[in-house]
Amino acid sequence: MLAAVSDRSQFFLFTGRSLAVRFRRSDGSPLVGKVSRSKTGKTVTEFLGIPYAEPPVGELRFRLPRPKSPWKLPLNVTRYSKSCLQTPDSYFKGFSGAEMWNPNTPLDEDCLYLNVWVPGRLDAKRKLPVMVWIYGGGFWSGTSSLDVYDGKILASEENVILVSMNYRVSVFGFLYVGLQEAPGNAGLLDQLEAVKWVQRNIRTFGGDPDLITGSATSPWGMETQQTLLERALLISEACNCSVTIRDPNPDFAALVRCLKQVPAEKLLENEWVTYEFLDFPWTPVVDHYFLMEDPRSMLQAGNFKRTELLVGSNMDESVYFIVYYVDKIFKKDDFFTKEEFLTSNELFEQAAFMLLPHKLRKNPIAYRWALDKMLGDYYFTCHANEFAKSYYQHGSQVYYYYFTHRSSQQTWPKWMGVLHGYEINFLYGEPLNTVDYSYTESEKQLSRRFMRYWANFGRKGDVCCQDGSLTILPTPYPHLGY
């Protein structure tokens, strides 16, 4: 049985159990989304895989993004797009705790797409707050289609529009030679282009273009984006920037022409070299176009938009990365099995022994958590503190969270604690999904509180709830671990 209902901008097509939504962007380009239900039973209209930029392929490889041209035929946007090219994590192959962060759609250079979740049915008159999510991954990996990033529960429970996007990572997003053919920071400009798309089009989805909150697990929100975002939320944020030093003699234009002819897979195979702990081969650069100066200098000088900020970190930020560093110390396959790793912390103790200064090696067990705190503070918490402090000192309202709860559904060993990034499950309402998970009642309440704080921040720049349920601690920052 088929039935159709239409108005000026929307067209609903009933096909048995499903409901397709035909919809037009602000430029008239037709989209076909779908009405679905969250795992909590609430209605959500979703558009998955909307192109916001031209495919960065061929001559557009490495270059800054170009806005997507309008189209005439209806475009089906009911499935996630392909993920941007990257090297999946295979260190703990077959282990869900690690592989949950790997791309779950095919990899391709043609990957600049975004997703929109609207609570209920479309209504352009609602003017809902808009939350923009940008995944982390050290500019090296990530995708918006991960199960943990499914926006249906968050959008429907908090009555906000949620937007997420793919952006280029690794060499494809951050190759820099100082020429327009490879200007660097292309991945960050992808993010900016997606935010511009949201500003141009979100009104037709029922969103308020003047109430857009950006949320990220990686450094972003640089100077060029200052006028686009009403407020910002940073999760386990670290503000780092590497500046490339160029040799003035090589012919970089010829080099880029050559690299554009190389198959994408070959570039991935040959881009990795040995780096220090938590170093990545591709990072933002000071290009004097998008990023005018080192972010630390920008913070100290107050060269950023005065806006509300919500920033936070987790209790055991670095443990997740330390276990990956073990392979640099021991021969992994000869020294331990995955089963032994998951049931014992002896390996972690030996890694601590190798990483600690000589004067502390007499008792590595006693200092193993000091190592975690030291590295976690150095790479994450201190940067988050500095970021928050700079915003506060320059007159902005700042909220800080410190996440200390270890999930009952966590698949990593218990001794690893509260890992980097694992508050995201609570932010997206995963504990409310009783179909696929068995969280405790207290965890469901924690998730609801976390979602409410985040949504309140997006609505009014203030995390407080009307029922007074927010607890504010007198300590402004988490205690450093060393």
UniProtKB/TrEMBL annotation:
<dbReference type="GO" id="GO:0005615">
    <property type="term" value="C:extracellular space"/>
</dbReference>
<keyword id="KW-0719">Serine esterase</keyword>
<dbReference type="InterPro" id="IPR029058">
    <property type="entry name" value="AB_hydrolase_fold"/>
</dbReference>
<keyword id="KW-0378">Hydrolase</keyword>
<dbReference type="GO" id="GO:0003990">
    <property type="term" value="F:acetylcholinesterase activity"/>
</dbReference>
<dbReference type="InterPro" id="IPR019819">
    <property type="entry name" value="Carboxylesterase_B_CS"/>
</dbReference>
<feature type="active site" description="Charge relay system">
    <location>
        <position position="317"/>
    </location>
</feature>
<dbReference type="Pfam" id="PF00135">
    <property type="entry name" value="COesterase"/>
</dbReference>
<keyword id="KW-1015">Disulfide bond</keyword>
<protein>
    <recommendedName>
        <fullName>acetylcholinesterase</fullName>
        <ecNumber>3.1.1.7</ecNumber>
    </recommendedName>
</protein>
<dbReference type="GO" id="GO:0005886">
    <property type="term" value="C:plasma membrane"/>
</dbReference>
<dbReference type="InterPro" id="IPR050654">
    <property type="entry name" value="AChE-related_enzymes"/>
</dbReference>
<dbReference type="GO" id="GO:0006581">
    <property type="term" value="P:acetylcholine catabolic process"/>
</dbReference>
<feature type="active site" description="Charge relay system">
    <location>
        <position position="420"/>
    </location>
</feature>
<feature type="domain" description="Carboxylesterase type B">
    <location>
        <begin position="30"/>
        <end position="213"/>
    </location>
</feature>
<dbReference type="InterPro" id="IPR000997">
    <property type="entry name" value="Cholinesterase"/>
</dbReference>
<keyword id="KW-0531">Neurotransmitter degradation</keyword>
<feature type="active site" description="Acyl-ester intermediate">
    <location>
        <position position="215"/>
    </location>
</feature>
<comment type="similarity">
    <text>Belongs to the type-B carboxylesterase/lipase family.</text>
</comment>
<dbReference type="GO" id="GO:0019695">
    <property type="term" value="P:choline metabolic process"/>
</dbReference>
<dbReference type="InterPro" id="IPR002018">
    <property type="entry name" value="CarbesteraseB"/>
</dbReference>
